[in-house]
Amino acid sequence: MGTISEAPALFDSAYYRDPYAVYDWLRVHDPVHRFRFPVGDVPMVFLSRYDDVKALLSDQRFSNDGEAYGSEDFRRSGMIFGAGTLIGRILTVLDPPDHTRVRRLAMGAFTPRRVAAWKEPVDRIVGECLARLEKSDSPDVMDYAGRIPADVTGEILGFPLKRFGEMLDAIERAFHADPDNPDHEAVVAAAFEELVDYGRELIVEKRRNPGDDLTSHFVHARDGEDQLTEDELVSLVAVMIMAGIDTTRNLIGSAVLALLDHPDQLGLLRGHPEHTPTAVEEFLRYDGAFCVGLFRLAKEDLEIGGVTVPAGTPVVAGLQSANNDPEKYADPRRLDITRTGQRHLALGHGLHNCMGAALARMETGVAVPALLERFPRMRLAVPREKVLFEENWLLRSLPSLPVTL
């Protein structure tokens, strides 16, 4: 890990090469860090300590709704998630009472019976993806990591449509578009619109042919007594499509890389699969799918740790900085699949904790040990220094993880 002697820059190339060195410096020297976001030059605040991040995530003086509470600079910057589309009105940006109503209806789909029933398709799909990986001439863990949540999400949401491949392409363009492309904002907006259109098509199909799947449950909630609006229904299906695929892909990939970097822990998990539940939590803590949370907007003038935060200021929750705070975790940059104690914040906290957490945990808990068991001699096919995370301010995402099986 590198060392930093002066105030670092967030979200530049050096940061993406080693974000944890930046987090370490900020926690010690500037835990409530004022900076200007490189896109749009917007004044923001970055929180790096665990206690501050956790408090922010449940502080009702903040909102995730950038269109309602963002500063003028922020609203003009193009940084509002899904701005101008129904994606911009997904559950993650709603405030109470709408958030309370929509989340209660949505979580009604995640019954213990339904979650338990997901184990069979997860096991089956992981087996199919292992067989596909074994036949590959250029095996890449990220192909494996991406196909599993795509197929599982398709089955759980009840995809009968032929545009599934197009939808996966739209997700790629929405979350991994080239930020240097002058048409970046238009590319992302068009991808979000495609996902919304796909959600509408899926809803039409489920009204015609309902089944025991999440989309049918959401449609029933919309059409029953506890109604969702039609726009809320569409945005709910769209967010399940997005969140169910890309974030789990990132988590599986980073988990495998972390194990390859810690061969003692790889051997421990291979020999003792009973450690899988704590291993999954450690994967989330060590290098979770999100670097930071979505922007939290101050609804009023306030103060954090002696730093003035004017109304409308976007505040960034440094999730992975919090999850590696040495005040909360001993030797935080050491992977320890038996680690217990302080709960991590990788899946959020408070109102906006991850709705699909049970599924993400299940998929990762099946996919990673199965890979180790199937390929006990798996190793990187390229030098470790060639394995780089994508330069993405929100996601902790590996574009590729080539291996020799």
**Rg measurement, Å:** 21 Å
For the record, give the distance between the C-alpha atoms at the N and C termini, rounded to a whole number.
28 Å
Please provide the ordered H/E string of secondary-structure elements. Answer: HHEEHEHHHHHHHHHHHHEEEEHHEE
Q: Helix- and strand-based class? A: alpha+beta
Average of the residue pLDDT scores: 87
Low-confidence stretches: none
- Assess the beta-strand content as a share of residues: 5-15%
Q: Main beta sheet, described?
A: 5 strands, mixed
Strand order of the largest sheet: 1-2-7-4-3
Number of E-state strands? 9
What overall form do the CA principal axes indicate? Answer: globular
Supply the number of helical segments: 17
In percent, how helical is the residue content?
A: 40-55%
Notes on the protein architecture:
The protein is α+β, with helices and mostly antiparallel strands. It has 17 helices and 9 strands. The strands form 3 sheets. Strands 1-2-7-4-3 form a 5-stranded mixed beta sheet. A two-stranded antiparallel sheet has the order 5-6. Strand 5 and strand 6 (307-309) form a beta hairpin. Helix 10 (164-176) packs antiparallel against helix 11 (184-208), helix 11 packs across helix 13 (230-261) and helix 15 (276-287) crosses helix 17 (357-374). The two termini are 28 Å apart. 46% of the residues are buried. The model has no long low-confidence stretch (mean pLDDT 87).
